[in-house]
Amino acid sequence: MTDVYREIQDPATAPERLAEIVATHPELAPWVLQHPNCYDALREWIAAYATPPAGPATGAGDVFSTTASSDPFARAVEPALSSHPATPFGSAPGTQPTRPRGPFFRRRGILIGGSIGIAAIMLVGIGGAWWAISGLTRGASSPEGAVARLLSGVENVDPVTVATSLAPSEFGGFVEPLQRLASAVPGEDGGADMAQLLADVRASAELSSTAMAYETEQLADGVVRVSWTDGEMRLSGDERELARSLTALYEPLLRARQAAIYGYSDAEIDEAIDAMVDGWSSNVDLDQSWDARDAADWYGAGPISLVAVDEGNGWYISPLLSFYDLQWRQSEEQGYVDSRDLGDAIIEAEVFETPEVAAEELTAALESGRIERVAATLPLAERRVLSLYGDVFNLEYVVNEYSPSIETADFSAATNGDRARLSIEELLVDFTEWSNGYELHDRYDISEVCAEWSDEYLDSSYSSWWDEYTYWTDQRTGSACLDDPAWTDRLGAGDVDLIAVREGGGWLVSPIATIADAASIAVDSFIPYYESGALDELFR
Fold first, then answer.
1. Is the dihedral of CA 83, 89, 94, 99 positive or negative?
2. At what angle do helices 266-282 and 239-262 cross, to 10 degrees?
3. What's the 3-state SS for 466-492?
4. What pTM was computed for the model?
5. Smallest Cα–Cα separation from 74: which of 30, 12, 139?
6. Which uninterrupted H or E stretch holds 31?
7. Which residues contact residue 162 at a Cβ distance below 8 angstroms, ignoring those fewer than 6 apart?
8. In this structure, are residues 104 and 27 in contact, taking their beta carbons and an 8 Å threshold?
9. What would the pLDDT profile of 451-472 be if each residue is shown by its tens digit?
10. Segments in 60-174 forming alpha helices (H)
């Protein structure tokens, strides 16, 4: 499908060709809808047959559905055939409507798992694709369907399908910055063309699956663990070509950094990149296959699994819960946690009247060391993690060991609709521990993105005359800001704030939204350097 992906991103592609593409590849309908040459009749046909109808009577659907029976993942309803054009080329009087055929789950999939580079390509690609699917997609009809959809997207290196499989409560805040990054035009120093990158990855490696079977276990209301119990996956491809494809995403940034910081010449950078490609490709084997039992042995904690969540309009994969579920199961395997301590219900939120109060209550909850109290001060996505896997964080041990005391917690907020930016006016935290009868204090005074600290420690000297040690306390001090390094300053680190969101009629501080907002600031700061061909200036 490489050429097809190129065509739907080419503004010169003819309307007739767009109709041919969507007839044979209905999963690309969201992209075609945004093409400048997509005409009204084609839009109507896509609305009828390439996407499910919207509305309260339909339930959750799937933007990729061709028919209710051909997409096993989505909640969809059969559209009325007689009210739409018969073909994507327009109405044809006297003919019966037809629909594109073929299963949604294509088996010619391609590798992406197990590599940060591939994940980055997919993430940026998701940003570029989301504008085409935002507001149109629905969750899968079952937890197993959400896993199957994600696997389909991974196999096909299809950012649209991957995007629609991830929980909006966790991933939604990253969409806009990724979209802007994917839409950026590289400057004179070159840059990665996303369509070409995706095409190169598809061409260089292939991941396929057969006879996949899953078992489910309900962890809490609307939260289900889906485990891979049967089936086979096969991996094949050209290791060097895949390494080269992945390197292309980072190459402009790598070149700029090596030139600005180390003063390397183009020839030296070429040699370094070739060495990196050689090293990566020599340590990866793309010719292998494994079944569910093999994968479970590698996993080290039973069957490979993902956690799916119901977010009201269908089931999605939760990256956060899937990650912490792995941590929990591996900790359980090693005897650090007990399965009886795994949470089985989502803690109710305690919302607050203002963003400032929400921040103050979160800090007080952290000081208490009670994981259930901390969970109650967080939005749903974060609250789910602490409700189920709170013991992994071992917060009670940290509090008992270091006795944190928050002496000052002063925040100011700027509210804009359902979001608020929280600036730390002053956050003064004291950690206490005892050693040889001495009470030692580590103090952190945080203001906005800067912190000053002092920590006490025991010093000693030995007297051979008395054959004993003499102890006394000493102190180290320091300070640092997020924007101290020049490159973080240029990427807007000084503008980072905590983010609070409205939920359940009140305010809660959201770590996920805070990270997403910081990513948005960094992307907006990065793009001018990228588009002007001045990436080397980031590191000077």
1. negative
2. 140
3. CCEEEEEEEEEEEEEECCCCHHHHHCC
4. 0.73
5. 139
6. helix 29-33
7. 122, 126, 150, 153, 154
8. yes
9. 999 999 888 887 777 777 788 8
10. 116-133, 143-155, 159-165, 168-171
